[in-house]
Automatic annotation (TrEMBL):
Keyword Signal: no
Superkingdom to which the source organism belongs: Bacteria
Domain HTH lacI-type: 3-57
Keyword vocabulary terms for this entry: DNA-binding, Transcription, Transcription regulation
InterPro entries assigned: HTH_LacI, LacI/GalR-like_sensor, Lambda_DNA-bd_dom_sf, Peripla_BP_I
Organism: Wenjunlia vitaminophila
Protein name as catalogued: LacI family transcriptional regulator
Length: 350
């Protein structure tokens, strides 16, 4: 039979209230008494009742990390960074939404029921007014109950930034527009003028922001008109990137460069080009986004935009643990950096 708090009290020769004070660390206890209690806990292998403790406190020892795809290294790096800062003091649970709006809302409801100490929402957000409202309301209730919240890789939500009751909400926004604009400027500087773009799902914030950066670079060169026909939307995975690239090549065989909205899609771009007998970068240059671990080892090495994903996750973890405070407006912008490798070169076609 599992040991109870009363068993610990008897073993240590103290009251149950004293045991509770030691375990919750919420009231001064003499050092010698504390040691007796902790020794009794260890000898009896007493396990604290997490649900009861959560009821007594405002929050539990649980941290929820919501990701779109648990198999995607993008989200794995963020989740790993979050967990690196918990120090084993919190139980970090990864919740795989598969990008489904209902699953995202369900997980937030479950985390509220568990009185989660912290919640990280990572990756692209769904741009649908009803869903945005539903997410905002759930996060507002979580924050009001004492849960710290970090939006990692998402834009701020209206009414959930800055001081007042919403001080527990912080936003770590990736510089997606700047990174995409600088990456397209790199291709333009090499001399490319027929640039295809493999974008993500049209209803996602990350898709829109990266596409806006790409279009801004084209517009600055007077090339914005007609660029829409060189854009293909698809899911953020390799197979979808391959299919989208084949469609772009059918529509515009003269492409000299293709920019993908993330590195995984860029692998699909490379596969499609090889299927068509095209060399990288001799015939077509390819770029990605995120600088995932495999990008440097791809052949050729992938030119991409580096986001410090692990470091962003670690910052989210520090904010959740209260080891670091967000700025007054709650917004931190995570910078992006273009990394030039061998998958891009000047065009060789006339």
């Amino acid at each position: 039979m599992a040991a109870t708090l009363a068993d610990v009290a008897r073993r240590a020769g103290v009251s149950a209230a004293t045991v509770s004070r030691v375990l919750n660390d919420n009231y001064p206890v003499a050092p010698a008494t504390r040691q007796r209690v902790l020794r009794a806990v260890q000898e009896l292998e007493y396990v604290i009742n997490g649900n009861a403790r959560a009821l007594a406190a405002s929050t539990s020892d649980l941290i929820g990390v919501l990701v779109n795809d648990v198999a995607d290294p993008f989200f794995g790096l963020i989740a790993s960074g979050v967990q690196s800062e918990t120090g084993g003091d919190k139980l970090a649970v990864v919740c795989n939404t598969t990008g489904a709006p209902d699953r995202e809302l369900n997980y937030l409801t479950l985390l509220q029921r568990q009185r989660a100490a912290g919640v990280v929402l990572s990756g692209s957000a769904i741009e649908e007014p009803e869903h945005i409202h539903a997410v905002t309301e759930r996060l507002r209730r979580l924050a009001a109950a004492g849960t710290r919240i970090v939006l990692c890789g998402r834009p701020p939500l209206p009414g959930l930034a800055g001081g007042g009751d919403d001080a527990k909400v912080a936003t770590l926004a990736f510089a997606n527009r700047d990174g995409a604009r600088e990456l397209t400027e790199h291709l333009l500087a090499l001399g490319h003028r027929r640039i295809g773009y493999v974008a993500g799902p049209a209803d996602r914030t990350t898709t829109r922001h990266r596409l806006e950066g790409h279009r801004a670079a084209l517009a600055a060169r007077g090339m914005g008109a007609g660029s829409g026909r060189l854009i293909a939307h698809c899911a953020y995975d390799r197979a979808s990137g391959r299919r989208a690239t084949l469609a772009l090549l059918d529509a515009e065989p003269g492409l000299t460069a293709i920019a993908a909205a993330n590195d995984t899609m860029a692998l699909g771009v490379c596969a499609a080009l090889r299927e068509r007998g095209l060399r990288i970068p001799d015939d077509v240059s390819v770029t990605g986004f995120d600088d995932l671990p495999f990008s440097a080892d791809a052949f050729p090495g992938l030119t991409t935009v580096r986001l410090p994903l692990y470091q962003a996750g670690a910052l989210a973890g520090r904010l959740l643990m209260g080891h670091e405070s967000p700025p007054p407006d709650g917004l931190v912008t995570i910078p992006a950096e273009v990394v030039r490798r061998d998958s891009t070169a000047p065009p060789r076609r006339p």
